[in-house]
Structure formats: C-alpha cells, structure tokens
C-alpha cells in the first residue's frame, strides 16, 4: 500500500520534472527523493523488529505484535471507529478528583489535564520521548479497553500534507477526518509563553471554531486551558472553561515537517540529546506539527485537548522509533538531559531509573520500561 503510494508520487513528479524545468519542480523532486529515503529507513526498522522478534525471547512475538497505521491508510469505516471511540472517551466520567483537575468532565479531559500538569517536566527535557510514548500508549489503551476500540493508535504523517495541511485526510473536514480547519476569522498574531520562551505567531488560514466534520462545537467542547496564551488568564488551566475547538491550519509551519526535514533529522544525530534538540527545536518537526494545527495546538500545555494531538504525537513516536532502530543496540537505551524544561529549575539528569509521573492516568513508570516498543510493556510497530 505505502510502497505503491510513494511510487505513484515519485513517477508523477518525475513526469512533471520533464515537462517543467522550474525551481519548484526541483524542490518537489528533492522532497520525493527524501520521502523515498525515509521509507527505506522505515523498512530497515520493520525488518529489524521482525528479525529480532524471531530470534529473541520477549513477551512480544511476531504473533502478538500490533501495528499503528497512517490515518489515510485506514478505511473510512476504521476512521469512524476511531472517531467514535474518541467521542466515547469524551463522555466517560473522569477518574481525576475535583481537587486534582477541577475542570475535567471526562476521561478525555483526564489526559488533557495530566498533560497540563506534566508539561514543565516533559518538554525540552530528557523525559520528552519516554513520557509521550507512554502517554500515547495509555490513550490508545483507554480507547480500546474503556471504549471498545478494536484497532490501534493511528498517526498523522505530516510529510504527506506538508504543502497544505488543509488537504490532509486528517484535517479535510470530511466525516472521516479529525475535523476541519477553524472557521476563517480575521485575527492578529497569537503570543505564547512557555518554558521561558516567548513567541509571536502570525495568523494563518483559520482562527475560529472547527466547522466541518467531527469535533465541531455541537459534538465537542474543550474544557481545560488555555495556559500558554498571552495575556495570561491566570488560573493554571485546570479550571472548567468550556469553549469550541479552535484551529488555524498553517502551511508556513507545516513546511517544517516536509520530507527533507524529517530525513535530515533522522540522519543528523547519533545521540538522543542531539536528536531531541533537533526534533523539539522551534523550526523542527514537533513544533512544526503543533503550529501547523494552530489554535489550541499552539498551547504547549493544553494542546492535548485537540483530538488530533494524539495523531501528531504518534507520528513523533514513530520518527523516534525509526531513529532508534537504525542502530538499536546504541540508541534504544540512551538518555540525556534532566527532568525539567531547559533544566529550569535545575533537576537531576534523567537515567533509565528515573521515574516518570502520569498523574491520575497510571502509576509512575521508569524510563527503562518505555525505552523500547518491543522489550517492555509495549509490543507495537509502525507501518
Ligand atoms: C531558480 O533559482 C535560481 C537561484 O535560486 C534562480 O537564479 C533562477 O532564476 C530560478 N529559476 C527559475 C526558473 O525560477
Ligand atoms: C504580542 O507580542 C508583540 C511583540 O512581542 C507585542 O507587540 C504585542 O503587544 C503582544 N500582544 C499582546 C496581545 O500581548
Ligand atoms: C515572556 O513572557 C512572560 C509572560 O508574559 C514574561 O513574564 C517574561 O518576562 C517574558 N520574557 C521575555 C524574555 O520577554
Ligand atoms: C520551506 O522552507 C525552506 C527551507 O527553509 C525554504 O527554502 C522554502 O522557501 C520554504 N517554503 C515555503 C513554501 O515556505
Ligand atoms: C549530567 O549530565 C551532564 C551532561 O551529560 C554531565 O556533564 C554531568 O556530569 C551529569 N551529572 C551527573 C551528576 O551525573
Ligand atoms: Cu506534550
């Protein structure tokens, strides 16, 4: 499936290169070549996992490993099943207490609230990858065990829609998407402040409420946050603040998720500290995906209130996984950094023994336990 997709992409742009000798087709061609190269790295990763599971003894075997797929590769029926499971989580009573996350009204809000609580520890820190890997896995598990979802967490491969996220199957506004862009409303820049970083983000193509497909105001309300937007409202983001889901899809930011960007990220670093710094950089793919969504996605704390957050972070986990498995013996068990954003306030170095906090969602886990997707509690692979 994927192979033929990329082959089509490649032959199409090969044709366009022959008919138009413009710079834009040269850029397209570079992107297509990078897509192919990323695909090869992914195939290496898949081969490694298959081989390892055949030759080593884990609880994870070739028979019970599960597969996470790209949103656009899911059938319409499968996409609906996922969307309905998310709606279900948004209707289930929260586990968190009024003292813990006062504004939580659902299990979905438990996840959004824990993200707000943990944000200062799990971004620009040695906990970024391990926290978000387990966080996505807990969400996937809640969808399956509490809402009867039968498949696995899909991801949004931004390199497919880097030229215009509005055309992505994730955001095209069809009943099989994660909802549309926000309504186009004239607005100024958005100022955000988090981890001592202050940014002014230009308005993009939306700015209002999601208006088509799932998660429009009649089917979904955001309850928590904002936290990062300036001027600051001062309540910490955990109070009940019902409002519509805002998006502001941006091709300018999506440009930072283009295939050449992902390829150079995958090839740039041999150590996790370097890889994390590149991936979390303001001009990197993590911010690229969040800022391409815009609206709530700009809020480093409250962004998990957008149901598309989970597809974006599955893709982040996929990219980490592909990177890890290019040199698994060296890269799977590496740690770097500390347990606070930019080490502010200073905290001990993260090691494999460091405990990660998941608030009301689950017991603490050690970094070691979540370092591998096949050796530990996990048994999954990306297609
Ligand atoms: C391509 O880019 C180069 C420099 O980047 C420029 O000199 C040239 O005119 C461009 N060609 C076209 C067809 O746009
Ligand atoms: C946003 O930041 C810009 C530049 O730093 C500043 O000029 C502007 O007043 C800020 N806007 C708000 C609403 O705080
Ligand atoms: C960033 O914004 C915060 C909150 O408005 C403010 O307290 C801080 O002084 C700003 N920092 C810089 C470097 O401008
Ligand atoms: C995307 O980023 C590249 C590299 O920074 C730049 O050359 C290019 O002009 C950008 N494209 C768009 C459409 O912004
Ligand atoms: C923490 O990590 C830094 C950077 O790798 C290193 O220089 C430092 O010695 C480490 N500190 C401790 C207490 O291990
Ligand atoms: Cu996060």
From TrEMBL:
<feature type="domain" description="Tyrosinase copper-binding">
    <location>
        <begin position="306"/>
        <end position="317"/>
    </location>
</feature>
<feature type="domain" description="Tyrosinase copper-binding">
    <location>
        <begin position="123"/>
        <end position="140"/>
    </location>
</feature>
<dbReference type="InterPro" id="IPR050316">
    <property type="entry name" value="Tyrosinase/Hemocyanin"/>
</dbReference>
<dbReference type="Pfam" id="PF00264">
    <property type="entry name" value="Tyrosinase"/>
</dbReference>
<feature type="signal peptide">
    <location>
        <begin position="1"/>
        <end position="20"/>
    </location>
</feature>
<protein>
    <recommendedName>
        <fullName>Tyrosinase copper-binding domain-containing protein</fullName>
    </recommendedName>
</protein>
<keyword id="KW-0732">Signal</keyword>
<keyword id="KW-0479">Metal-binding</keyword>
<dbReference type="InterPro" id="IPR008922">
    <property type="entry name" value="Di-copper_centre_dom_sf"/>
</dbReference>
<dbReference type="GO" id="GO:0016491">
    <property type="term" value="F:oxidoreductase activity"/>
</dbReference>
<dbReference type="GO" id="GO:0046872">
    <property type="term" value="F:metal ion binding"/>
</dbReference>
<dbReference type="InterPro" id="IPR002227">
    <property type="entry name" value="Tyrosinase_Cu-bd"/>
</dbReference>
<keyword id="KW-0560">Oxidoreductase</keyword>
């Amino acid at each position: 499936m994927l192979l033929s997709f990329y082959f089509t992409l490649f032959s199409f742009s090969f044709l366009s290169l022959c008919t138009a000798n413009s710079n834009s087709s040269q850029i397209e061609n570079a992107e297509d070549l990078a897509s192919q190269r990323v695909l090869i790295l992914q195939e290496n990763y898949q081969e490694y996992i298959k081989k390892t599971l055949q030759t080593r003894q884990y609880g994870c075997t070739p028979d019970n490993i599960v597969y996470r797929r790209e949103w656009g590769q899911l059938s319409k029926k499968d996409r609906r099943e996922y969307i309905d499971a998310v709606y279900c989580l948004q209707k289930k009573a929260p586990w968190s207490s009024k003292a813990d996350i006062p504004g939580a009204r659902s299990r979905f809000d438990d996840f959004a609230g824990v993200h707000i609580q943990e944000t200062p520890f799990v971004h620009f820190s040695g906990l970024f990858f391990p926290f978000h890997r387990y966080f996505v896995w807990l969400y996937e598990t809640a969808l399956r065990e509490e809402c009867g979802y039968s498949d696995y967490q899909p991801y949004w491969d931004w390199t497919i829609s880097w030229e215009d996220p509005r055309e992505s199957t994730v955001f095209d506004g069809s009943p099989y998407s994660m909802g549309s862009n926000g309504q186009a409303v004239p607005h100024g820049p958005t100022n955000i402040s988090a981890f001592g970083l202050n940014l002014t983000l230009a308005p993009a193509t939306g700015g209002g409420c999601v208006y088509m497909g799932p998660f429009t105001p009649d089917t979904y309300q955001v309850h928590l946050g904002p936290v990062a937007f300036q001027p600051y409202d001062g309540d910490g983001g955990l109070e009940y603040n019902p409002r519509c889901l805002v998006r502001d899809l941006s091709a300018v930011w999506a440009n930072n998720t283009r295939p050449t960007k992902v390829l150079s990220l995958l090839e740039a670093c041999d150590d996790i500290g370097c890889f994390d710094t590149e991936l979390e950089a303001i001009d990197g793919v993590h911010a690229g995906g969040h800022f391409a969504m815009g609206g709530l996605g700009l809020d480093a704390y409250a962004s998990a209130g957008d149901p598309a957050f989970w597809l974006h972070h599955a893709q982040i986990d996929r990219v980490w996984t592909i990177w890890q498995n290019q040199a698994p013996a060296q890269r799977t068990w590496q740690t770097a950094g500390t347990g606070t954003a930019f080490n502010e306030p200073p905290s001990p170095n993260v090691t494999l023994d460091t405990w990660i906090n998941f608030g009301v969602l689950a017991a603490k886990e050690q970094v070691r336990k979540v370092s591998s997707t096949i050796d530990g509690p996990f048994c999954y692979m990306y297609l």
